Amino acid sequence: MNYPTLEQCVGNTPLVRLQRLVDDERGNTVLAKLEGDNPAGSVKDRPAYSMIRYAAERGDIRPGDTLIEATSGNTGIALAMVAAMQGFRLRLIMPENMSEERRAVMRAFGAEIVSVSESEGMEGARDLADAMAERGEGMVLNQFANPDNPRAHYEGTGPEIWRDTDGAITHFVASMGTTGTIMGVSRFLKEKNSGVRIVGVQPAGESRIPGIRRWPQEYLPRIFEPERVDEVIDVEATDAENTMRDLAAREGIFAGPSSGGAVWAALQLARQTENAVIAVIVCDRGDRYLSTGVYA
Questions:
Q1: CB pairs under 8 A, 24+ apart, for 6-12?
Q2: Residue 296 pLDDT more than 90?
Q3: Residues 15/261, Cβ–Cβ less than 8 Å
Q4: How distant is the alpha carbon of residue 104 from its chain centre?
Q5: Which residues form a coiled coil (predicted)?
Q6: Between the chain's N and C termini, which has fewer beta carbons within 10 Å?
Q7: Beta-sheet strands, E only, within the chain
Q8: CB neighbourhood size of 26 (10 A)
Q9: Pick from 26, 11, 15: which is nearest to 153 by CA?
Q10: How many CB atoms lie within 10 A of CB 38?
């Protein structure tokens, strides 16, 4: 019998219909893709495996090498899992205000964590990662500019959604951080049906939502192609968190704030259209946010 290895368990996550948060009088179906079912618990398992896999296949890295990455959490956890699985050392740079659950999981996988201040944020983490690489301390995978990030979603997430909706999808919704998910899925779905509407979600104004960013122009991810997104919806942190709690209490889906923001946007779309099939990324599980008090 051929038993799968861990990397073969990345992807093919469930796509489930929301039952109680959607007003179905308009004939809409809202489908949540449960990326928390990936081995390390988030959608970032896909690009983490893709970036390391293809770098190794090209001969850019070899087991034993040190990898460096700036992360707000989920990418770091996913990279730590893949690095442990394939024999790489990993140094992760992250803002000090990220949840302790995330740090604990990264350390469990054997990763070293380097902190920057909350005021420096992800921009400071990215700058430090580049400086460390320039000093010869390791190779930066750079999820913000690495084409193997959206490639993971072009080869996996997009085809899965198309398959599981029998090509009936009309809208795709995803929160935007590195933008790898929305770039890869958009490319695939638009090739299948140019009429599929691609909707990105970003924080409104000064709202801070873990996993979603409104980047300054100079830090905009290089993988981001604005023409691949048809519409951007701004979400307030309170709406993201309230929807996150509603997902748990009314749908049984335990997720984080960025997933709440994406689902909130999908529900807004469902109130504005009819007979639509809306797929939305629920990017991780809620257990890695408990210490932040969002579920209190």
A1: 6/39, 6/81, 6/85, 7/49, 7/53, 7/82, 7/85, 9/38, 9/39, 10/38, 10/39, 10/45, 10/46, 10/49, 10/156, 11/38, 11/45, 11/46, 11/156, 11/157, 11/160, 12/156, 12/160
A2: no
A3: no
A4: 19
A5: none
A6: N
A7: 15-17, 29-34, 66-70, 89-95, 112-116, 139-140, 171-175, 197-203, 231-235, 277-282
A8: 13
A9: 11
A10: 25
DSSP 42: B
Tokens at residue 129, please? Answer: 């990662």
Of the residues 33, 44, 99, 259, only one is catalytic, namely 44
258 catalytic? Reply is: yes
Q: Are 55 and 61 in contact (CB under 8 A)?
A: yes
User: 257-272 vs 237-246: helix axis angle to the nearest 10?
Assistant: 90
pLDDT tens digit string along 262-292?
A: 999 999 999 999 999 999 999 999 998 888 8
Catalytic residue among 42, 72, 186, 258: 258
**99 pLDDT exceeds 80?**
no
Contact 35, 74 (CB under 8 A): no
pLDDT tens string 28-63: 999 999 999 999 999 999 999 999 999 999 999 999
pLDDT at 216 over 90: no
> Cα–Cα distance between 111 and 133 in angstroms, integer?
17
Q: What is the DSSP string of 115-167?
A: EE-TTTHHHHHHHHHHHHHHTTS-EE--TTT-THHHHHIIIIIHHHHHHHTTT
